[in-house]
Write the structure tokens for this entry.
Amino acid sequence: MKSDKILLSITLCIWLYVSASAQTDTIAVADTTFQPVQSAEQAELKMNIIKLNLISPIFLNFSLQYERVINKFLSATLTGRFMPTSSVPYINSFYNKIFGSDDPAIEEAFKEMKISNYGASVELRFYVGKKGYGKGFYIAPAYRFSRIEMSHLIFVYDDYPGAEESLTFSGHSNANYGGLMLGAQWFLGKHLTLDWWFFGPLAGYQNASVSAVSSMPLSSDDQQVLKTKLEDWDMPLTEKNVYVDSQSASLDLYGWMFGYNFGLALGFRF
């Protein structure tokens, strides 16, 4: 049994979880509600904004955001995000640079792997400009929940002549993040808006679980080697639980993770 290959596959799988958890939002919907207004300018304000993120669709993410303006300086948003099951975007472009593996079996396995994710986030926006009511520069404490699921990662090997074997991987990760966002929103005429959040560091706690099922029983030596390598694997700020038997292996990770949020959204006010 080539336990090094098994370890490499599990390692790369976890790496994908970590990197995928930092994806940007895609579609945004904001709703702008304000206190009773008196001036003619304020009377023309629209209460709702629907926005489409112009950057995130590149990464196959789609989201919907609802924003409610509480007063001139304060609003709250609720966002839902979804990525349908698909291959890892642009994996052909970055595989060799990121993974550095020239093993065709490992490369083929990762290019056939499927991932999906969904999440939700809330923001409390503080508009610091003179106009407000959803317009101008804002500072926003934010919370995000994200779940990533992985499947169809199949590693095929032939340690013994004429006997093809395989390991099938699947798993998921859940993460809760907190962070701070900086951005600005402009009104383009009576109905269009442009929302740009350019600074959004996130930090939080994530747990991930990856399991592998073998098509053939693992020998006791293979089990021990694999278990030892996984237990000795050092990951900063992370705790792990390892389980290996003759048919499968599992790795559970718990620890602090970091991400980043940014986007550019074109909106319609009504």
